[in-house]
Each structure stands twice: as structure tokens, then as C-alpha cells.
From TrEMBL:
InterPro entries noted in UniProt: ChrR-like_cupin_dom, RmlC-like_jellyroll, RmlC_Cupin_sf
Pfam family, one: Cupin_7
Organism ancestry: Bacteria, Pseudomonadati, Pseudomonadota, Gammaproteobacteria, Candidatus Pseudothioglobaceae
CDD domains: cupin_DAD_ChrR
Name used for this protein in its record: Cupin
TM segment ranges: none
Gene3D superfamilies tied to this protein: Jelly Rolls
Every ChrR-like cupin domain range: 4-108
Coiled-coil ranges per UniProt: none
Length: 117
């Protein structure tokens, strides 16, 4: 028998999103398999209305599925419910949500906070 982790994304406990050290205002997460040291794994990210991500560079692929709400990227692109987004290693950005959002994130490497945004 294989070990497994089943998550009902509509019935989970969220903790302050502290991936970059201190908690980011209006953001919380539920870790599914994410490892803070390797930057590998998955988590559910909840952004309350008005939340802004830390500007960052992807050291590996970062991919996510929009479950609810909208996310506006630093270049003005709007990601909506049902969309799958993939950022390549070396890409830099930050995102903002006016409405709030629920996102499932698949992280394949650490992100590095940046000051370019």
C-alpha cells in the first residue's frame, strides 16, 4: 500500500504565508508536500482581496492552477479560474489580487526574493 495525502481544498486549515521569512499580509497557505529547504512540492495558496506577492525570481519551474478568483501579474496579464500557468526558471514577477484567489501551486525549486518589481 502506498502512502497518500488527500486534501479537500474547500475544507483545510490555512497558516500565514511565510515562505520568504515573515508572513506576507493577506496571504495564507496549506502545505501539501512543500519542502522549505529544496523548494520542491505543492501547496494551496489563499490570497485575500488586495493581496500582493513578494517580487521574486524562479530558480526552478513554478506552476499553478487558478481554482477561484483572479490574479493580476506584474505585466498586466490576468489569470482566471480554470487556467494553468507555468513560469520558467529565471523568470521574475509579482502578482496582485483585487478579488482574492485560491490557487494550487506546484513548486519545482526555490524562489529568490527580488527587488526588480
Amino acid at each position: 500500500m502506498h502512502d497518500r495525502h488527500v486534501v479537500d481544498i474547500h475544507n483545510i486549515e490555512f497558516m500565514p504565508f511565510d515562505r520568504y521569512g515573515s508572513p506576507v499580509p493577506k496571504m495564507s497557505w496549506h502545505i501539501i508536500s512543500y519542502d522549505q529547504i529544496s523548494g520542491q512540492g505543492s501547496y494551496v495558496l489563499k490570497m485575500d482581496p488586495g493581496a500582493q506577492t513578494v517580487p521574486h525570481m524562479h530558480m526552478g519551474f513554478e506552476e499553478f492552477i487558478m481554482i477561484e478568483g483572479e490574479l493580476i501579474d506584474s505585466d498586466g496579464t490576468v489569470f482566471r479560474k480554470g487556467e494553468f500557468v507555468s513560469f520558467e526558471p529565471g523568470s521574475e514577477h509579482s502578482s496582485f489580487s483585487e478579488t482574492g484567489a485560491l490557487i494550487i501551486v506546484f513548486q519545482r525549486g526555490l524562489n529568490k526574493a527580488s527587488n526588480s518589481e
